[in-house]
Design a protein that fits this description.
By secondary structure, this protein is an alpha+beta fold. It folds into 2 domains: about 130 residues, Probable inorganic polyphosphate/atp-NAD kinase, domain 1 (Rossmann fold), CATH 3.40.50; about 120 residues, Tumour Suppressor Smad4. About 15% of the residues lie in helices and about 35% in strands. It has 6 helices and 20 strands. The strands form 4 sheets. Strands 3-2-1-4-5-6 form a 6-stranded parallel beta sheet, with helices on both faces.
Length: about 270
């Protein structure tokens, strides 16, 4: 029997009228079931309570709706550091690889969830620290890229008691969920999303280095020049030459709510 859902939050795509309409409809349906609904600023959804991401952390949430595209879903998982299930709903014409349904299925989705006809889909997340200072977790990938376009840094990469030193433009550290993102665009493999491993995909190495698929063990990286560290293509941090970047599996896995079981679910959305 499904657990009683009492508190729900909605995160919507920025500046999207369609996402705002969908959020309003979700709110109306949930309120009729005596469920409290919170919307995360800057979005304002009628009949919901607006809260900041910081205020949201103090609320005992049962579920979060991410209404938008993959970017909205990634933002939702970065805001929520602990283990709260997220139902991802796609808006617009993009692929929405992370989403479960489109906005035309709102009634079906709400009824299925409230009736307990769903299951959890767990995905690993990764987190970086820069000289011991932790930054938000990533569901898809952490990308390190050079800043100075005229000088190629040497990256020192330590993993599984081995060390690799290569001159390259950067490196992509991707989860299986992120294997269809930046890593795939750079020639990396598509992995089954439930695997417990990471892809290391070098960017333009001077001496050809293969893509590596490794267990989700700790990885340490240092660069001879300043580099950028980007989380899920959305947040950028500057790393000074010689600073230690440590990447490890995040303590709380991402938790999706799914309505239908599928195998390599991302392949169809990639057009295969």
């Amino acid at each position: 029997m499904a657990e009683r859902i009492r508190n729900v939050a909605i995160i919507t795509k920025f500046n999207s009228i369609e996402a705002e309409r969908a959020a309003s409809k979700i709110t109306e349906l949930l309120i009729t079931k005596q469920i409290k609904v919170y919307s995360i600023v800057p979005s304002i959804v009628r009949n919901s309570t607006s809260v900041t991401p910081e205020e949201l952390m103090a609320i005992n949430l049962d579920l979060i709706f991410a209404v938008g595209g993959d970017g909205t879903t990634l933002r939702a998982f970065r805001i929520i550091s602990h283990k709260i299930p997220i139902f991802s709903m796609n808006v617009g014409g993009n692929r929405g690889i992370l989403s479960e349904v489109g906005v035309d299925s709102i009634d079906f989705a709400i009824n299925s969830i409230l009736a307990g006809r769903y299951f959890y889909d767990l995905r690993i997340r990764i987190q970086a620290s820069i000289n011991g200072n932790f930054i938000p977790p990533a569901l898809n990938d952490i990308v390190l890229t050079r800043i100075n376009l005229t000088r190629t840094p040497i990256l020192s990469i330590k993993l599984m008691d081995d060390q690799i030193k290569q001159r390259m433009d950067g490196i992509i550290i991707s989860t299986p969920t992120g294997s269809t993102g930046h890593s795939y665009s750079s020639g990396g493999p598509v992995l089954y999303e439930g695997l417990n491993c990471l892809i290391l995909n070098p960017i333009a190495p001077v001496s050809r280095m293969p893509e590596l698929v490794v267990p989700s063990a700790n990885i340490e990286i240092e660069s001879t020049h300043d580099i950028y560290l980007t989380i899920d293509g959305q947040e950028v941090f500057r790393v000074t030459a010689g600073q230690n970047v440590k990447i490890s599996r995040f303590s709380a896995d991402a938790q999706f709510i799914r309505l239908r079981k599928r195998g390599m679910r991302q392949l169809a959305k990639l057009g295969f």
